[in-house]
Amino acid sequence: MTADAEASPATLLPGNFTEFAFDQRPGAQLPRDVRLRDEAGYAVTTASLFDRGKPLVLVFDYFRCTTLCGVVLGDLAAALAQVPLTPEKDYTVMAVSFDPGDSPADAAALKAGHFERDPALAGAIHALVGDSTDRGREVRRLADAAGFRYRLDETTGQYVHPAGVVLVSPGGRVSRYILGVGYDPTDLRLGLVDASRGAVGSVADHLLLLCYGYDAAQGRYTAEVGRLIQATGVLSVLALGLLVWRAARRPGRG
Protein backbone atom coordinates (compact mmCIF):
# COMPACT_ATOMS: atom_id res chain seq x y z
CA MET A 1 0.00 0.00 0.00
CA THR A 2 1.37 3.42 -0.91
CA ALA A 3 1.85 6.21 1.60
CA ASP A 4 -0.90 8.24 -0.06
CA ALA A 5 -3.30 5.31 -0.01
CA GLU A 6 -2.61 4.60 3.64
CA ALA A 7 -3.15 8.25 4.51
CA SER A 8 -6.45 8.45 2.64
CA PRO A 9 -9.68 8.89 4.61
CA ALA A 10 -11.53 5.76 5.68
CA THR A 11 -14.45 4.84 7.87
CA LEU A 12 -13.09 3.09 10.96
CA LEU A 13 -15.03 0.55 12.96
CA PRO A 14 -14.46 0.22 16.74
CA GLY A 15 -12.36 -2.92 16.28
CA ASN A 16 -10.00 -1.10 13.93
CA PHE A 17 -8.74 1.25 16.62
CA THR A 18 -6.49 -1.47 18.07
CA GLU A 19 -4.44 -1.22 14.86
CA PHE A 20 -3.30 2.26 15.82
CA ALA A 21 -0.92 1.47 18.66
CA PHE A 22 2.76 2.32 18.37
CA ASP A 23 4.76 -0.22 16.40
CA GLN A 24 7.76 0.10 18.69
CA ARG A 25 11.11 0.12 16.88
CA PRO A 26 13.90 0.73 19.40
CA GLY A 27 17.23 1.24 17.67
CA ALA A 28 15.65 2.27 14.36
CA GLN A 29 17.38 5.10 12.53
CA LEU A 30 14.96 7.89 11.70
CA PRO A 31 15.37 9.47 8.25
CA ARG A 32 17.70 12.44 8.35
CA ASP A 33 16.52 14.12 5.16
CA VAL A 34 12.87 14.78 6.04
CA ARG A 35 11.99 18.34 5.01
CA LEU A 36 9.75 20.31 7.38
CA ARG A 37 8.84 23.90 8.20
CA ASP A 38 8.97 25.50 11.64
CA GLU A 39 6.51 27.89 13.26
CA ALA A 40 8.18 30.84 11.52
CA GLY A 41 7.89 29.19 8.12
CA TYR A 42 11.60 28.41 7.76
CA ALA A 43 12.66 25.15 6.12
CA VAL A 44 14.43 22.66 8.40
CA THR A 45 15.58 19.06 8.02
CA THR A 46 15.48 16.37 10.65
CA ALA A 47 19.29 16.10 10.48
CA SER A 48 19.60 19.71 11.68
CA LEU A 49 17.79 18.71 14.88
CA PHE A 50 19.28 15.23 15.27
CA ASP A 51 22.89 16.46 15.12
CA ARG A 52 22.88 18.76 18.15
CA GLY A 53 24.44 16.20 20.48
CA LYS A 54 21.42 15.92 22.76
CA PRO A 55 18.38 13.62 23.06
CA LEU A 56 15.01 14.62 21.65
CA VAL A 57 11.40 14.18 22.66
CA LEU A 58 9.49 13.47 19.44
CA VAL A 59 5.72 13.89 19.60
CA PHE A 60 3.34 13.51 16.66
CA ASP A 61 0.09 15.48 16.75
CA TYR A 62 -2.09 17.55 14.52
CA PHE A 63 -2.21 21.11 15.62
CA ARG A 64 -5.90 21.89 15.04
CA CYS A 65 -7.01 18.81 16.97
CA THR A 66 -9.68 19.47 19.60
CA THR A 67 -9.47 16.14 21.45
CA LEU A 68 -6.53 13.90 22.41
CA CYS A 69 -3.66 15.97 20.99
CA GLY A 70 -4.18 18.84 23.40
CA VAL A 71 -4.11 16.42 26.33
CA VAL A 72 -0.85 14.85 25.10
CA LEU A 73 0.85 18.23 24.68
CA GLY A 74 -0.49 19.68 27.92
CA ASP A 75 0.61 16.64 29.92
CA LEU A 76 4.01 16.66 28.23
CA ALA A 77 4.58 20.34 29.05
CA ALA A 78 3.54 19.79 32.68
CA ALA A 79 5.80 16.76 33.10
CA LEU A 80 8.84 18.35 31.43
CA ALA A 81 8.50 21.35 33.76
CA GLN A 82 9.26 18.94 36.63
CA VAL A 83 12.22 17.19 34.98
CA PRO A 84 15.53 18.36 36.53
CA LEU A 85 17.21 18.82 33.14
CA THR A 86 17.71 22.09 31.27
CA PRO A 87 15.53 22.53 28.15
CA GLU A 88 17.49 23.13 24.93
CA LYS A 89 20.81 22.57 26.73
CA ASP A 90 20.02 18.96 27.71
CA TYR A 91 17.19 18.07 25.33
CA THR A 92 15.02 19.31 22.47
CA VAL A 93 11.34 18.71 21.72
CA MET A 94 10.06 18.08 18.18
CA ALA A 95 6.28 18.48 17.91
CA VAL A 96 5.43 17.33 14.38
CA SER A 97 2.00 17.67 12.78
CA PHE A 98 0.84 14.82 10.56
CA ASP A 99 -2.10 16.83 9.17
CA PRO A 100 -1.16 18.14 5.69
CA GLY A 101 -3.57 21.03 6.29
CA ASP A 102 -1.62 22.42 9.25
CA SER A 103 0.45 25.53 8.53
CA PRO A 104 3.34 27.34 10.25
CA ALA A 105 0.71 29.66 11.73
CA ASP A 106 -0.99 26.64 13.34
CA ALA A 107 2.42 25.54 14.67
CA ALA A 108 2.98 28.98 16.20
CA ALA A 109 -0.47 28.91 17.80
CA LEU A 110 0.18 25.46 19.27
CA LYS A 111 3.52 26.55 20.73
CA ALA A 112 1.97 29.66 22.26
CA GLY A 113 -0.98 27.72 23.65
CA HIS A 114 0.95 24.92 25.35
CA PHE A 115 4.51 26.04 25.99
CA GLU A 116 4.88 29.83 26.14
CA ARG A 117 4.02 29.93 29.85
CA ASP A 118 7.47 28.47 30.50
CA PRO A 119 9.97 30.55 28.45
CA ALA A 120 12.84 28.13 29.09
CA LEU A 121 10.79 25.18 27.84
CA ALA A 122 9.36 27.17 24.92
CA GLY A 123 12.90 27.77 23.69
CA ALA A 124 13.41 24.01 23.35
CA ILE A 125 10.20 23.40 21.38
CA HIS A 126 10.31 23.03 17.61
CA ALA A 127 6.73 22.99 16.29
CA LEU A 128 6.96 21.57 12.77
CA VAL A 129 4.68 20.96 9.81
CA GLY A 130 5.16 19.35 6.43
CA ASP A 131 5.63 21.38 3.28
CA SER A 132 2.25 22.39 1.87
CA THR A 133 3.17 20.94 -1.54
CA ASP A 134 4.06 17.36 -0.56
CA ARG A 135 0.62 16.17 0.67
CA GLY A 136 2.05 14.81 3.91
CA ARG A 137 4.61 12.46 2.34
CA GLU A 138 7.61 13.76 4.30
CA VAL A 139 5.91 13.53 7.69
CA ARG A 140 4.60 10.08 6.75
CA ARG A 141 8.20 8.90 6.17
CA LEU A 142 9.23 10.11 9.61
CA ALA A 143 6.15 8.67 11.33
CA ASP A 144 6.52 5.28 9.63
CA ALA A 145 10.16 5.03 10.71
CA ALA A 146 9.17 5.84 14.31
CA GLY A 147 6.33 3.27 14.27
CA PHE A 148 3.61 5.92 14.64
CA ARG A 149 0.37 4.95 12.86
CA TYR A 150 -2.43 7.32 11.97
CA ARG A 151 -5.38 7.66 9.62
CA LEU A 152 -8.18 10.12 9.02
CA ASP A 153 -11.65 8.87 9.97
CA GLU A 154 -13.95 10.40 7.36
CA THR A 155 -16.99 9.89 9.61
CA THR A 156 -15.73 12.15 12.38
CA GLY A 157 -13.19 14.24 10.48
CA GLN A 158 -10.65 13.36 13.21
CA TYR A 159 -7.38 11.46 12.95
CA VAL A 160 -7.05 8.16 14.77
CA HIS A 161 -3.60 7.73 16.32
CA PRO A 162 -1.84 6.48 19.47
CA ALA A 163 -0.93 8.67 22.44
CA GLY A 164 2.65 8.87 23.59
CA VAL A 165 6.08 10.28 22.84
CA VAL A 166 9.23 8.87 21.29
CA LEU A 167 12.61 9.50 22.91
CA VAL A 168 15.37 9.79 20.34
CA SER A 169 19.13 9.54 20.83
CA PRO A 170 21.56 12.11 19.38
CA GLY A 171 21.94 11.30 15.70
CA GLY A 172 18.32 10.22 15.29
CA ARG A 173 17.97 6.65 16.61
CA VAL A 174 14.80 5.61 18.45
CA SER A 175 15.59 4.92 22.10
CA ARG A 176 12.40 4.61 24.15
CA TYR A 177 8.63 5.08 23.98
CA ILE A 178 6.67 6.71 26.80
CA LEU A 179 3.09 5.66 26.16
CA GLY A 180 -0.33 7.09 26.92
CA VAL A 181 -1.01 10.40 28.66
CA GLY A 182 -0.41 11.74 32.16
CA TYR A 183 3.36 11.39 31.87
CA ASP A 184 5.44 10.70 34.96
CA PRO A 185 8.35 13.18 35.14
CA THR A 186 10.58 10.34 36.36
CA ASP A 187 9.89 8.36 33.18
CA LEU A 188 10.84 11.34 31.03
CA ARG A 189 13.91 12.08 33.16
CA LEU A 190 15.21 8.51 33.00
CA GLY A 191 14.27 8.15 29.35
CA LEU A 192 16.17 11.28 28.34
CA VAL A 193 19.24 10.27 30.37
CA ASP A 194 19.01 6.79 28.83
CA ALA A 195 18.65 8.19 25.31
CA SER A 196 21.52 10.62 25.76
CA ARG A 197 24.11 7.81 25.97
CA GLY A 198 25.77 9.55 28.89
CA ALA A 199 25.69 13.04 27.37
CA VAL A 200 23.28 14.52 29.92
CA GLY A 201 22.29 13.89 33.51
CA SER A 202 23.97 14.12 36.89
CA VAL A 203 25.63 11.29 38.82
CA ALA A 204 22.34 10.97 40.73
CA ASP A 205 20.43 10.56 37.44
CA HIS A 206 22.69 7.74 36.30
CA LEU A 207 22.54 6.02 39.70
CA LEU A 208 18.75 6.30 39.61
CA LEU A 209 18.79 4.69 36.17
CA LEU A 210 20.52 1.68 37.77
CA CYS A 211 17.46 1.19 40.00
CA TYR A 212 14.87 1.20 37.22
CA GLY A 213 14.19 -1.06 34.28
CA TYR A 214 12.35 -0.02 31.13
CA ASP A 215 9.09 -1.89 30.49
CA ALA A 216 8.40 -1.67 26.74
CA ALA A 217 4.87 -3.06 27.06
CA GLN A 218 3.85 -0.32 29.49
CA GLY A 219 6.11 2.35 28.01
CA ARG A 220 7.49 3.36 31.40
CA TYR A 221 10.30 2.76 33.88
CA THR A 222 9.67 0.58 36.92
CA ALA A 223 11.76 0.00 40.04
CA GLU A 224 13.33 -3.46 40.13
CA VAL A 225 14.53 -5.20 43.29
CA GLY A 226 17.62 -6.62 41.61
CA ARG A 227 18.60 -3.23 40.26
CA LEU A 228 18.00 -1.61 43.66
CA ILE A 229 20.35 -4.13 45.26
CA GLN A 230 22.91 -3.50 42.51
CA ALA A 231 22.69 0.27 42.99
CA THR A 232 22.97 -0.14 46.78
CA GLY A 233 26.10 -2.21 46.23
CA VAL A 234 27.59 0.48 43.99
CA LEU A 235 26.87 3.16 46.59
CA SER A 236 28.38 0.99 49.34
CA VAL A 237 31.58 0.49 47.34
CA LEU A 238 31.79 4.22 46.62
CA ALA A 239 31.24 5.06 50.30
CA LEU A 240 33.89 2.55 51.39
CA GLY A 241 36.32 3.92 48.82
CA LEU A 242 35.72 7.45 50.10
CA LEU A 243 36.41 6.37 53.70
CA VAL A 244 39.65 4.65 52.68
CA TRP A 245 40.74 7.69 50.66
CA ARG A 246 40.03 10.07 53.55
CA ALA A 247 41.85 7.81 56.02
CA ALA A 248 44.88 7.64 53.74
CA ARG A 249 45.05 11.43 53.58
CA ARG A 250 45.04 11.95 57.36
CA PRO A 251 48.38 12.98 58.89
CA GLY A 252 50.13 10.10 60.62
CA ARG A 253 49.93 9.93 64.38
CA GLY A 254 53.08 9.16 66.33
Protein described:
The protein is of the alpha+beta class. It has a single domain, classed as Glutaredoxin, CATH 3.40.30.10. Helices cover 37% and strands 20% of the residues. The chain contains 9 helices and 11 strands. Strands 2-1-5-4-3-8-9 form a 7-stranded mixed beta sheet, with helices on both faces. Helix 8 packs antiparallel against helix 9 (225-249). The longest helix is centred in the last third of the chain and has 25 residues, at 225-249. The model is unreliable at 1-17, 225-229 and 231-240 (pLDDT under 50).
Query: Per CATH, which architecture?
Result: 3-Layer(aba) Sandwich
Strand content: 15-25%
User: Which fold does the CATH topology refer to?
Assistant: Glutaredoxin
Shape: globular
Physical arrangement of strands within the biggest beta sheet: 2-1-5-4-3-8-9
Q: What oligomeric arrangement do these chains adopt?
A: single chain
